[in-house]
Amino acid sequence: MAESHAIHHHPALKHHFDNMEQQLEAGTIGMWVFLLTEIMFFGGLFLAYVIYRAVYPEGFAVASNTLDVRLGGFNTVVLILSSLTMAMAVYSAQTGNKKRLLLFLFLTLILGCVFLGVKVFEYRSKFEHHLFPAVGWYDWSHEPTHNPALASQARVFLWLYFAMTGLHALHMVVGAGMLVFLMFFAWRDKYSPEYHAPVELGGLYWHFVDIVWIFLFPLLYLLGFHLGKH
Amino acid sequence: MEATAVAAEPRINYLNNDYGWKSWLFTLDHKRIAILYLVSITVAFFIGGAYAGAVRLELLTPAGDFFHADTYNKLFTMHGVIMVFLVLIPSIPATLGNFLIPMMIGAKDLAFPRINLLSWYLYIAGAAFVLYAAVAGGFDTGWTFYPPYSSIYSNTHVIAAGIGIFIAGFSSILTGLNFIVTIHTMRAPGLTWYRLPLFVWAHYATSIVQILGTPVIAVTILALALERTLHIGIFDPKMGGDPVLFQHLFWFYSHPAVYIMVLPGMGVISELIANMTRKKIYGYKFVAFSSIAIAVFGFLVWGHHLFTSSQSVYAGMVFSVLSYIVALPSAVKVFNWTTTLYKGSMSYETPMLYAFGFLGLFVIGGMTGLFLAAMGLDIHLQDTYFVVAHFHYIMVGGTLMAYLGGLHYWWPKISGRLYPEGWGKLSALLVFVGFNLTFFPQFLLGYMGMPRRYHAYPADPVWQVLNVMSTAGASVLGVGYVLPMIYFVWSMRYGKKAASNPWPATGLEWMTLSPPPTTNFEVTPVVTTEAYDFAAIEEIRAAT
Amino acid sequence: MSEHIVSARIYLVIFASLMVLTALTVFAASFDLEHIWGPLNAIVALTIAVIKATLVVLYFMHVRYSSRLTQVIIVAGIFWFIILIAFTMADYMTRSGWPGAGA
To answer: Please, what are the domains in chain A?
Structure first.
């Protein structure tokens, strides 16, 4: 749309930008640069994982088998499905379909909550089995089938599990909050085919969180899968 | 410099267009946010400086007789944390960068003004945590926070300090993010990358480092906090962890961090030298790409801080070679700046004096860095005063001098007033003399074996003389820093009013009024000339 | 820059591929490949994960249709992450006794 000076300003155009294209470009690059910082943020924990896994292969495999692959796999499916619904939400915004936009944002939110619910269940189970790696909470030998020599090594795995999935879950909670905001503004008719940048940028964030999980699942859950469950 | 007669009617500019604390604390104007940062950083600087003063006081005598050893540990720790995280990292980008980058590219503001304001609030929140930790009893781990001392044995406020640094880190990330997006998307018509002032290139490179490095230290502090509270065992050998892993993660950020500190200073120096010698910077593209090279290579050398840890010798050799390579782009810049001076039409106002100071002191600091990059030599010099002198030459002799030079140079634009030139020159001289008196003896002390972070040293007369010289220098340096604070404030009321382009200099920021209107330019400029095009300026001079 | 609208059909195809790859990674993990070659399980798992991530990035995140700058940003992120891992591993892997009884 032609931007004639001071007459046809889209209500969402911020005053320091010349036109909506520039605003969208800035927003998109901004979100990608932010995701870049997230890669490095998680990166520190991935580094710790790589090093400790190489040094403690046995303990890691055994500790990994205390995680339930079915729950992890289910969560993986849920999260990838939520990425689909998020992409469909963006599509709905691009084609100006408010009802579908609201529906898909809502589905994404529900799926995200399901994921978090499963994580709560998994964490609680870890606490109950004395596998939370803090002083006073951790007792590897509580389970007679656990090889006591691997207690320290398994503990390192478990703190990585909690730190990495915990950080991931925190990002999902933020993402859920973001979805609520998007739904609110979509309901208020803020978005249109000409302007739906928040939905797109929110989608980028959500997909990134999905990608982190795509790596966490095999690294944390499938590590010792070939050894068979204990 | 030229002053104008007092205007008949007050003109609306970014300083007077609105009054009241709300107009400052809720501002979205990048220029006001820069002022907010300027004030906060100055306060932090004097607090950090007070800690340094206490350290130097103790070291007047060999015996540890002024402070208890534990207290002394807290003094140098808090000096380091405040100066690194609350002063040097934000200094030039958050003040001069925030103020000038939109103007230099002909834009009305940064890409994300609200994120800019948020980054200042994050800075304040981070500073609040650090100061709380200081007031509640301090923390004594050294600014490097190495475990297992920081994770297990220290019973001081490590976590509070860590939270403060964590939050301040996000302030830094957001500033970098804003700059990258702004420089990519908001340049005025005709302003191609190779027409940008080198100040902008330097900040672009700095922003890359902020974006890629800071998140790593953030997650490291998080891990350290978990270690300290839950005794998880990440860095504890007894529980299967590795303390050297902390060092790797810490220095992956903290080495590039020193480039966050020095690159903006180099950007300032490019502007000062070009504009005060009325010459285009020699080898513009080399200087521009050297900034990027420093940013990239700066990420490959962190292991030179781990030479005396249990890092493998082979890795050490690789890091050592890379540390020599990273010096090359800095050397390129120094050669180019120096060559620019040749046959330049020089003026010796205060900013130029600071630029000269930078050139000499940065070279010394850089060369002594090469001493330390040689692994065999570093074994002997690690944790001595040689290291302390080296990094102070770069950070104080380099960055801080560039910061002061830049503040003086752009003061007419920022405040609309001229600072008193005589006092400016005196302060620059005091800073230069005071600085060298403070830190040169420390090279000698370090070479002779005086360890850092000790509140006492052997009762050797030579050592004591050098320490006394150092403390005396620090006092002179302190005076040199206080004077500008006084006369800058004085000038806001009593200084001569400044023209749009008092030097005169090149750059879009000088093409608008001093102080600028809120939207920077009445009409978006269109750029048709290369950077540092002094022929055009001569025409302006001839016409006025 | 004009916006490219990715069709719903492509999204469904990508989703189906991701489901297949997820099943594949679980299936592959159930085999002990480590006695063929030590790191093989890890390599297979990571390769599949990288393929999945690539599909999400290219299609769900529209990078296939995005500007060169966006693509440079992503490559830079991956590259820097690799620097972090590779250079640190260069230390650990050249220590004596690696991978041994502790770092």
So the answer is: 20-227 (1.20.120.80)
